Amino acid sequence: MRTGILTLPLHTNYGGILQAYALQTVLGRLGHDAYVIEKERKPLSVPLWRMPVKFGRRLVRNLTGHPCPIFYERKFNREQPVIRQHTDKFIDRYVRRKTFADYTSIGEQDFDAIVVGSDQVWRPQYFDDIRTAFLGFAEGWRIRRMAYAASFGTDAWEYSKRQTQDCRRLLSAFDAVSVRENSGVVLCRERFGVEAEHVLDPTMLLGKEDYERLFLDARTPKSQGTLLNYILDETPAKTALIAALAEAEGLVPFRVNSRVEDINAPLEERIQPPVEQWLRGFADAEYVITDSFHACVFSIIFNKPFFAVGNQGRGLSRFKSLLTMFGLQDRLLCAADAADLRTKMGRPIDWNSVNVRLEEHARRSIAFLSRL
User: Fold this and answer.
1) Alpha-carbon span 328 to 322, nearest angstrom
2) Which of 29, 33, 268, 299 has a CA-to-CA distance to 245 between 20 and 30 Å?
């Protein structure tokens, strides 16, 4: 079956890349000819009529002490190929894609089925038109439609009244609906009138050996440390937390990410390391501390003790749902609190129990995908 995967654009986000890779791999093992649907990359630009307002706002930001490139689009277009050089190499090698000028360019004849997911694909702020994530461009087509581990990212409702009505109508045409968080089950029922199943993020449908093969094939060098700190939003409090954990456990901190989102950082500091190096970080680590959902996922896959620092801005319900599934609620630090860390440090993780739960959830999740 020719199956399309509609997910968020793939760029420098390790979790976003690997969830697409994993879902495509699992669908392939189930007999699908699966492709990630990719919207053609176009140079970033500003319409002429918006230039005075855009440039004026940026000038004001600079004058008020908030550095911002006046010609941001030019800087973005020049730097992105450099920043993405390693992650693009992984995507080109491992992710099969079909590229279209726009979602409206996709034809009914292109796919027999489309799977929407995973990641925060149902968060309105991540799509120009959220109806796209509910296959609005395919309304009326005779194809199979499935949502797999789709995420709203938060338990708060971020849709307008019109968006809610449109997406509710579109979702009613789906053959099967599943979400990544238990809060998503509630939102689907209350807002869309649809019963959704709670399934695993697709990265958890592959085994540790699948990921080890990637960094072994790439001959990725050993990590330079024993405490992996993968922090997306750095703060002095989180830096202090890393130091406290390193001192308490006798570990050497290391990181496997760049200042990719800091537009004012030197270009060489924004180049994102290879996906394989990120994966190897979990294999080599004795401990992990992170504010990333997918870093929690891979800590579980690799059976590495970890702590997650709650990230309210990026969506806290994702962490709570994941950790509850595996009885790991005490691994969540709701703030960068060293006292909370010291209280929880002495509680070991029962990996036998975690792995039994992982195997059972994976079996159920693959059974759901098999309904496509």
Assistant:
1) 8
2) 268
Tell me: pLDDT of 315 over 90: no
DSSP character string of 47-91: -GGGHHHHHHHHHHHHHTT----TTHHHHHHHHHHHHTHHHHHHH
List the beta strands (DSSP E) in 151-303: 176-179, 197-198, 227-230, 253-254, 287-290
303: which DSSP letter?
T
The pair of structure tokens assigned to 50 is 């918006």
Q: Read off the tokens for 103.
A: 């979602």
**H/E stretch holding 161:** helix 161-171
What distance lies between CA 53 and its chain's CA centroid? Answer: 33
pLDDT digits (tens, 9 = 90+) for 180-208: 999 999 999 999 999 999 999 999 999 99
pLDDT, position 229:
96
Residue 335 amino acid letter? A
Token readout for 345 is 């440090």
Confidence (pLDDT) at 347: 85
Tell me if 281 sits within 8 A of 230, measured CB to CB.
yes
User: Is the pLDDT reported for residue 245 higher than 70?
Assistant: yes
- CA 235 from centre of chain: 21
d(CA 36, CA 98) in angstroms, rounded, equals 6
In this structure, what token pair is assigned to residue 60? 């004001």
Contact 361, 197 (CB under 8 A): no
Place of tokens 């390193």: 246
Place of tokens 């992996």: 228
Residue 51: other Cβ atoms inside 10 A: 12
pLDDT digits (tens, 9 = 90+) for 136-153: 999 999 999 999 999 998
Max CA pair span of the chain: 61
The answer to whether 187 and 157 are in contact (CB under 8 A) is yes
Residue type at position 110? D
Quote the crossing angle between the two packed helices 275-284 and 293-301, to the nearest 10°: 50
Q: How many helices (H) and strands (E) does the chain have?
A: 13, 12
The answer to whether residues 292 and 15 touch, using CB atoms and an 8 Å cutoff, is: yes
d(CA 189, CA 191): 6
CB-CB contact of 188 with 179 (8 Å): yes
